[in-house]
Amino acid sequence: MSLAPTDKQLQEINGFRSFLSDQIRPKLSTWYKTGELPVEFFQTFGEGGWYGIRWKDGRLERTAALREALIAEELAKVSPGIAVAVLAHVNLGLTGLFLFGSDDLKKRYGPSASLGKTVMCVGNSENQAGSDVAGIAMTAEKVDGGWRLNGAKAWVTSGYAADLAVVTALSDPDASRNSRISMFLVDMNGDGVKRKKLNKMVWIPSDLTRITLENVFVPDDHLLGAQGKGLQQVLEIFTCSRIPISALTLGTAAGAFELALERARKRDIFGKKIIDFQAKAFEFADYYARMEASRLMLWKACAAVDAGRDFRQESSLAKYLTVQIAREITPWAADMFGAVSVMFEHPIHKYPMDAWGASLGEGTQDVQKLVIFRELLKRYSQSS
Ligand SMILES: Cc1cc2nc3c(=O)[nH]c(=O)nc-3n(C[C@H](O)[C@H](O)[C@H](O)COP(=O)(O)OP(=O)(O)OC[C@H]3O[C@@H](n4cnc5c(N)ncnc54)[C@H](O)[C@@H]3O)c2cc1C
To answer: How far separated are the first and last CA of the chain, in Å rounded?
Structure first.
């Protein structure tokens, strides 16, 4: 089994690096200063052809998981915050439409969403329901011609920028845990939708927003998938998005690592470069080895997706290992810069915080361990 990118994918990544240099790097300092990613960015990214879901021959289609992972890693090396805005749009929101939208909904929103002209997000987490995905309290009451949604989603990435939100709500609160939730496509510009941008410290310049729905009417045809299957559906979205978020996390580690290496090669201390202290050289070697190992796990997960195999365990292993390494490398890399590392203007300061953010999105490390253990039990019981 080859895990390596194809020549075509490597060529595309070179093209993406040019896109980064032309369209993103020159604007980064402004976006970090204002803490805002202009909504036009989503369209620029889409017109470049960089999203992992496209509209082609009248339907939505996914590009290869490895291609998407390579792009997410490159983007996150430069800005994990921008990479997460892309992820929330494509790997959460648009993936909800891709997996569970009717043909009509896909035709209506797919062309513009896959180009970033319509921005999407997912709102599941609430104050009492994060790891416990099923613990939500938002309600969906059946009314004539549709549903009336009430409640609040506490943490929604790109919720401020979004035009459409994939939202979970209790459609049958008295039913069992596995059949009381449904998934809806909500027009974020409709009546009763309120948004409050939160003052977060990770993944700048993406937005993190609290969304409150007050008697928001959602027409019947905006129910996504099957009524009562919202829990299984949102878990499926998270399982898929664990691969791109692992790539984003690896990019966070690699971006910090590369800056640290550059610094260690230039900075003179006690009459020699930092890199010439063997203690430091060994640290570089050790982190590089572990970063490469987590990359192989990520590529293995991509290979499973691209071959149409079950990837539940691989995606959690990739998330777990990339977060472990990113949470170790990023503060170590920042240390290499001494005092400068705490300056807001210096790019290195953001990586440790962004690695922290990565450990929360799409499930904490504890949640990944739960999935890894559940899946390994299945595999071992099949083989014994
Ligand atoms: C920057 C950011 C962006 C986000 N974007 C989105 C988004 O776009 N859409 C969305 O719906 N949500 C989003 N979230 C929410 C995110 O998914 C949750 O924060 C995450 O799932 C953790 O939930 P929680 O915050 O409620 O923590 P909790 O679930 O309360 O976890 C607290 C602690 O308990 C541990 N724990 C939980 N369950 C177990 C268990 N069974 N066994 C052992 N330990 C356990 C956790 O690992 C953690 O250490 C975002 C969060 C952040 C910080």
So the answer is: 25
